[in-house]
């Protein structure tokens, strides 16, 4: 990276040197009465170019970093003007003729500094963007890693519950859970997965929970619209489903319901998760690590392109989520 930046800086300075030399040569050719294309003519132009570029390099590599950037403005101004006068005198060898060269250097310095600070600000902005992107990636990876043990813990609870019931379906459920875990591990290595695969994962998870909860919970899972080739961040929706199971049917022996509807319109995904609330948890705080995690992931992955509404009512708990799946930062990175 350093070698690349150094090479880029060298090429820019060589280009600037050649540009000044060409402009000086053309100026002498077109604005002089007598055309002179002898060797001395080009040597004169080369000497002038060396003087101009020497002053620019002195300003950029010495005066700006050691005085202007360190807020030593008075010293910078004195040294800049003094350097201009010295370069002007070396050019004319006569103090009376330095004014024209001095003002030309002043103009050149102003233009050069404008380009210098513009380029430096662009480099700083690019570095800040790369730093911000890296920080987002690190946070997303951390949040994604949190989902894995959370889902595993809930899955083990499901197996434990079935084993206590001595259900003949326990072995089948273990196999189904292993498939879910395989998908989870594979998807965790990706930035996005197909929406179709993510919805199949949720559907299979609900089938397992339906077996575990037996007849005391009615689960409805409905998908409307064409998923096409849409993609979504993996394990983004499952916390809402787990939350509905954990704080709804799992926390009571009463009859309960879970209704999940998925609607796709063009590239926008609409998710609605509604579950009944048992009396004993009606006043409890519902939002735990899972929902906090998914809130943060949504803000990072789909900034300004999602709407999340959670209604904690007396008898029902409803989550409404809409996401523009084409607006993910992962598609622009």
TrEMBL record:
Keywords tagged on the record: Membrane, Transmembrane, Transmembrane helix
Coiled coil: none
InterPro entries attached to this UniProt entry: Bact_2-comp_sensor_kinase, HATPase_C_sf, Sig_transdc_His_kin_internal
Transmembrane helix among keywords: yes
Keyword Nucleotidyltransferase: no
Domain named Signal transduction histidine kinase internal region: residues: 138-216
TM spans (from-to): 9-31, 46-68, 73-89, 101-118
SUPFAM superfamilies in the cross-refs: ATPase domain of HSP90 chaperone/DNA topoisomerase II/histidine kinase
Molecular function in Gene Ontology: phosphorelay sensor kinase activity
An annotated GO cellular component: membrane
Protein name: Signal transduction histidine kinase internal region domain-containing protein
Source organism: Aquimarina aggregata
């Amino acid at each position: 990276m350093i070698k690349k930046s150094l090479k880029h800086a060298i090429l820019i300075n060589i280009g600037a040197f050649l540009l000044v030399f060409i402009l000086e040569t053309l100026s002498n050719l077109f604005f002089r009465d007598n055309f002179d294309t002898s060797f001395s003519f080009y040597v004169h132009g080369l000497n002038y170019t060396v003087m101009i570029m020497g002053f620019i390099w002195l300003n950029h590599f010495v005066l700006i970093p050691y005085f202007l950037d360190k807020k030593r403005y008075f010293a910078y101004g004195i040294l800049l003007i003094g350097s201009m006068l010295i370069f002007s005198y070396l050019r004319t060898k006569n103090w009376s003729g330095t004014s024209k060269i001095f003002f030309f250097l002043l103009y050149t310095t102003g233009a050069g500094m404008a380009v210098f600070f513009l380029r430096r600000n662009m480099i700083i902005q690019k570095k800040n963007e790369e730093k911000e992107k890296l920080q987002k990636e690190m946070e997303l990876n951390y949040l994604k890693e949190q989902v894995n043990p959370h889902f595993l813990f809930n899955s083990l609870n499901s197996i434990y519950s079935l084993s206590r019931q001595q259900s003949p379906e326990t072995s089948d459920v273990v196999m189904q859970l292993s498939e879910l875990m395989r998908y989870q591990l594979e998807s965790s290595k990706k930035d996005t997965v197909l929406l179709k695969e993510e919805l199949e994962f949720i559907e299979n998870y609900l089938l397992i929970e339906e077996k575990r909860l037996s007849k005391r919970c009615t689960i409805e899972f409905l998908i409307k619209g064409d998923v096409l080739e849409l993609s979504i961040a993996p394990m983004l929706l499952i916390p809402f489903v787990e939350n509905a199971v954990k704080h709804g049917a799992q926390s009571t022996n009463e009859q309960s319901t879970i209704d999940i509807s998925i609607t796709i319109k063009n590239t926008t995904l609409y998710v609605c998760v509604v579950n009944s609330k048992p009396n004993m948890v009606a006043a409890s705080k519902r939002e735990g690590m899972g929902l906090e995690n998914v809130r943060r992931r949504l803000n990072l992955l789909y900034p300004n392109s999602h709407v999340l509404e959670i209604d904690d009512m007396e008898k029902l708990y409803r989550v409404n989520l809409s996401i523009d799946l084409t607006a993910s930062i992962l598609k622009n990175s």
